[in-house]
Every structure is written in C-alpha cells, then in structure tokens.
Amino acid sequence: MVKELISAAEEHMKKSVDVVRKEFASLRAGRATPALLDKVVVSYYGTPTPINQLANISVPEARMLVIQPWDKSAVPEIERAIMKSDIGITPTSDGNVIRLTIPQLTQERRLELVKVIKKKAEEGRVAVRNIRRDYNDTLKAKQKEGIPEDEVKRGQDELQKTTDKYIKEIDELVKAKEQEIMQV
Questions:
Q1: Could you read off the pLDDT of 5-48 as tens digits, one per residue?
Q2: Which of 33, 37, 104, 169 is most enclosed, with most CB atoms within 10 A?
Q3: How far apart are CA 34 and CA 49, in angstroms?
C-alpha cells in the first residue's frame, strides 16, 4: 500500500520535472532550436494549430531557424503568429519559407533569462514539494485507517528521499541552462 503511494508520488514528481525541462527548452539561449516555437500557435482555417503540425522546422545554422510550411497559404498566418508570440524574433519570408534569425543575446538579456529560469525552477520545486505534502497527508490518513506507524514513517522517509532526488534534478537543469545562456 505504502509502496504504491510512493511510486505514484514519484510519477507525479517526474512529470513536474518534465514540465520544467520543457519550459527551459522553449527559452531562447542565443542558439536556434525548434523547441523555441513549441508554444507558438497558428490560427489555421480557424483552428489553433502548433507550428510543428503545419510545417517542417529545420536549423541550417547555429543562429537560424527555417520554417517550411506544407501549405504555402499558411505562410502569412505563421508569420503573424510568430510576431504575436513572446519569442521576440521578427520573421522574414520569401513566400515559400520563413526564416528566423536569432540575434546574439546581450548581457542584460542573459541576466533576465537567468532570472526567468530561476523563477520557473522554483515553480517546479514548489510543485514537487506540494506533491510530497499531498502524499504525506495521504500516508497520515492511511495510518488512521490502520497501517502501522513505523511503516508510515518509512514511507515518509522514502517520500523525502524521492523529493530530494527530483529537486536535485531541477537544480542540475538550472545549472546547465544557466551555463548555456551565459556562454558567449
């Protein structure tokens, strides 16, 4: 019973770490990556559609993304969606493909991005801690239902070790992303 609760908690914590990882991937670090466009949604025939479902996204150079829509009539809509998004890059188009040139990051922008990373990481840590709290409450409730106290205590210790493991993983993600951003 306690083991199932611990594994369920671990599964939830893994998902929280994955969310943080995806958030970091969508942050611009001066290097071109198709993940930059993950949050950009295009109104395609009235339906909100992610760019990666409308076009091929490639990285021909370190600082350039090329978006090649399968339907050429979608080019203006894709451009409009990129302009409206918060990625801060102006698209250039020749009617067939859209090019996004990623500018070099200024030191000021790098520091801003590091703050954003730390904020998103803290949100991830809080999510992991909330999961720990919820499962600790569940363990205490199970104790009242008749599970032995020492088993509940072992479960709580195991839950704490799992929490520490995932918070450490988030910290490592922060360190790696911070180095990537601060690299000139």
A1: 889 999 999 999 999 988 887 776 667 778 888 888 898 888 89
A2: 37
A3: 16
Closest CA to 78 of 54, 47, 46: 54
The residues facing 144 across adjacent strands are none
Integer angstrom CA distances of residue 48 from 40, 45, 180: 10, 8, 32
* pTM score of the predicted model: 0.70
88: left (phi over 0), alpha (psi -120 to 50) or beta: left
Which of 83, 31, 23 is closest to 61 using CA atoms? Answer: 31
- As a whole number of angstroms, the distance between CA 140 and CA 30 comes to 48
- Bridge-based pairing of strands 64-69 and 98-101 is antiparallel
CA–CA dist 23, 27 (Å, integer): 7
Structure tokens belonging to residue 72: 């050429």
What are the chain's domains? 2-25+106-182 (1.10.132.20), 34-101 (3.30.1360.40)
